[in-house]
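Q: Sequence in, structure out?
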Amino acid sequence: MSVPRPDLAKTTFGVLTLALLIASSLWILRPFLGATIWAAMVVVATWPAFLWIQARLWRRRSLAVLAMVVILLLLFVLPLTLAISTIASNAEEVVTWVRKLISQGPPTLPGWVQRLPLVGSRLTEAWNELVAAGVSGLEAQVTPYIRQVTSFVLAQAGVLGALTLQFLLTVVIAGMMYAGGESAAEVVRRFGFKLGGQRGEDAVVLAGKAIRGVALGVGVTAIVQAVVGGIGLAIAGVPFAALLTAVMFMLCLVQAGPTLVLAPATIWVFWSGNTGWGIFLLVWTIIVGTMDNFLRPLLIRRGADLPLVLIFAGVIGGLLGFGLVGIFVGPVMLAVSYTLVDAWLRDEEPLPVEADAAQQ
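A: Exactly. Output:
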């Protein structure tokens, strides 16, 4: 009896057709992929909160979805709008302050700057040359940078508009996912089971836990550090505290930390002659800057029991590789890969028949 040979041409064309369908579908959905990924991350991270809200709204799914959409609008769209309005309302004050600083001329450096190792003498020499140039020389050196900053701000206006539209689209897609979350989760788990059996389904569950852990560790830590740092700036009397708080939040979100804002603010307070408030803000900076060392691991461990180095590398690498959404994509990919490799290494190899007989 002859064994029928496989139809190689039919198999090849079938695979090519399937690949073409997948590629064309992704190309059509390309404008929505970023918002869809963000929405999936947000929904997975906030699903326990969504169920809690639904239980208190008479278990009405529609009311819970509406409440979450409103909350997401307040969390995503409102801060961006407030940041833009804060910049617009303080733009004239910033320009006036810069012009006043230029008209007065650069102040003389304190003596301790010259005593700094390596850079003190060079910094003092460059500053003295700037002072000798006078107001006209300072204006000539600052004017090109002001023009560059102005052109950059104008160029970013369209980016901010596109970012707002992206946030709105993310909120709409997240509302749809909230409405049918259980069925979508079941489809994803079945897909994972089809790919890798029980291990594939466990990987899907682990991905959800990793997303939730990163959202708790990165997001909540960034909010706490920015708010506490902003309170310190407001107490010390630093101008534009609200705007600096928004900048601190973005820096904490990308793992740069609030010290990049708090340290220059502390130097400015000391420079202004307020030694007492400068010491206060210095201590406050140390507290806020080190807060994430214990807060972030604690929150991440509540979501997923994974090595902290793995999560940190995933956040930084994902941010550099995929942009802002990589903060969640990077740790999820590393967490799933780490767990699969760990499970594979823990699998016990079956004993050979000869060795088993010898042991018996």
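Residues 19 and 25 are 10 Å apart (CA to CA).
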